[in-house]
Amino acid sequence: MLEIYEKSVTELRNEMIELGIKVEQAVDNAWKALEHKDIELANRIYNGDDEIDAMVKDCMKKDLTISMMQGPVAADYRALMATLKILSDLERIADHCADISHYVIHLEKTHHNVPLPAGLREMYGVMSSMVSDVIDFYKEKGSAGRAGMMRDKDDIVDMAFNSIMAEISKEITAHPENSRDYIAIVLVVKYIERMADHANNIAEWLIYRDTNELRI
């Protein structure tokens, strides 16, 4: 029985790592599509979201099966519960990649060539590093100390969000003819900010997994 349990936990962990890699790739590609106005890549990201959703559902099913059928000890049960929460945040990050891709297609079709706001690349880079970090932290127990640093990065993203929103507001006033494009960019920036929030949530659940400290 113990052998079956350990095998199930290992399979779930491996599938979670595979899912994390897929999400990380979607985050990287979403920026490439946005920066280069690459509609073909944006469509691939948008259509590929179903595959990630299916992987999330499969991992959730395995997680719940282990929780209900295998009788895990307290520490393992905590890890399984954290995994369930992490899956939800990974799914939302992937969904926001698809959302950004949708607006890449919209922005390219208008042919207005509205530039991306100054500082957006840096904001996206910090968020992307958060996603990469928490996926790495998931792979190893005892990463709670490093996971705790995610709040600082999230604060950086929040400050960038406020600065970019102020910049976009000025651009809408100066160029009202492009207001629909700027609204699309506002939504993209909001999705980036939310992706950072989800990465921070994952870090908090990893801290809970490793230390039994719940800060969410």
TrEMBL record:
* Protein name, per record: Phosphate-specific transport system accessory protein PhoU
Q: Please give the subunit comment from the record.
A: Homodimer.
Chief subcellular location equals cytoplasm
Using the record's annotation, list all stretches that form the PhoU domain. 18-103, 120-205
Indicate where this protein resides in the cell: Cytoplasm
Gene3D superfamilies (alphabetical): Phosphate transport system protein phou homolog 2, domain 2
Q: What does this protein do?
A: Plays a role in the regulation of phosphate uptake.
The record's similarity note reads: Belongs to the PhoU family.
Q: Which UniProt keywords apply?
A: Coiled coil, Cytoplasm, Phosphate transport, Transport
> Lineage in the entry?
Bacteria, Bacillati, Bacillota, Negativicutes, Veillonellales
Where is coiled-coil annotated? Answer: 2-29
Q: Which PANTHER family match?
A: PHOSPHATE-SPECIFIC TRANSPORT SYSTEM ACCESSORY PROTEIN PHOU
